[in-house]
Amino acid sequence: MKGSCPSSLKIFRFVLLTRMLFAGHVSSTVTEDDIKCLKGIKNSLNEPDGKLSNWSFNNNSAGFICNFAGVECWTEREDRLLGLELRDMKLSGQLPQSLQYCQSLQTLDLSANRLSGTVPAQICSWLPYLVTLDLSSNDLSGSIPSELSNCAYLNNLVLSNNRLTGSIPEQLSGLLRLKRFSVANNDLKGAIPLSFENNSKVDFAGNSGLCGPPLGKCGNLSRKSLEIIIAAGVCGAVFSILSGFGYFWCCGRKTKSYPQNKEDMISYAGATTVQPITKEDKIIEKLSEIQQDLSTDGINGGSIWHAGLPKFLKA
């Protein structure tokens, strides 16, 4: 683990350790808590390759846990746990609750394993001095807890390549020391908090539901979808109106018939539009009137009228 951290980070961690020392968080009970923490981790996680096989707690010599695989201590002679780097050990299970006993921990790297479950909302109360939290490339699900904003010393927060859902909590904007933040390749959605807009060391790729800088503007997809829906609705309405008009027009033409007499003509003219009276119509109307007059005088207008000469004119 030596020489793996930049000098600036080493200085920061030294200052943080000094603060912890004066705050009373590093004492004789810390060693016991750290051992309890490591025992819980080994017992709760499955390790098919036996990567934690050298975690033996039968040794009571000073600094014995500092020789464990993936364990980093404050110094080589003291059992004060500073970091756990258990990357790519094929560990499976959920994040152990025994982490709450590793309160002096500044680095927790459990990336590239097979961890499942959710990110504990209490993780920052368990590990208040975390500088680096890397849980990437696991099978974690659920939402990103807003309580991660309580890890006030976080410089690196890496949660990429999991199955996390929901949105990025706005509260993470309060992580003023955050220099690297990655949630790439999850199932997140919603707007990216504005505080990440100008941060070059952020990665939001692979989340189709996320929007906002540095990704596309929020609402573009929705507006495009809305335009398509509106256009389809308008076209559908126009088509329905034209279809209805055509249907009634065709039905109207089929039921129309030319009037057979004067009364039908009047009814037809009143139901539709007024048609001009032609010369033939006037002749038909006049003949009808003459026929009615002859019937009134007792003459059968439907037969031929035969008249004889008066008797005084006969020879």
TrEMBL record:
Pfam families referenced in this protein's UniProt entry, alphabetically: LRR_1, LRRNT_2
An example Gene Ontology CC term for this record: membrane
Membrane topology: Single-pass type I membrane protein
Superkingdom of the source species: Eukaryota
Keywords attached to this entry: Glycoprotein, Leucine-rich repeat, Membrane, Receptor, Repeat, Signal, Transmembrane, Transmembrane helix
Primary residence: membrane
Record InterPro entries: Leu-rich_rpt, LRR_dom_sf, LRR_N_plant-typ, RLP23-like
Domain Leucine-rich repeat-containing N-terminal plant-type: 32-74
Signal peptide (UniProt feature, chain positions): 1-28
Keyword NADP found: no
Xref: SUPFAM superfamilies: L domain-like
Location relative to the cell: Membrane
Membrane-traversing stretches: 228-250
Name the record gives this protein: Leucine-rich repeat-containing N-terminal plant-type domain-containing protein
Organism in which the protein naturally occurs: Gossypium barbadense (Sea Island cotton)
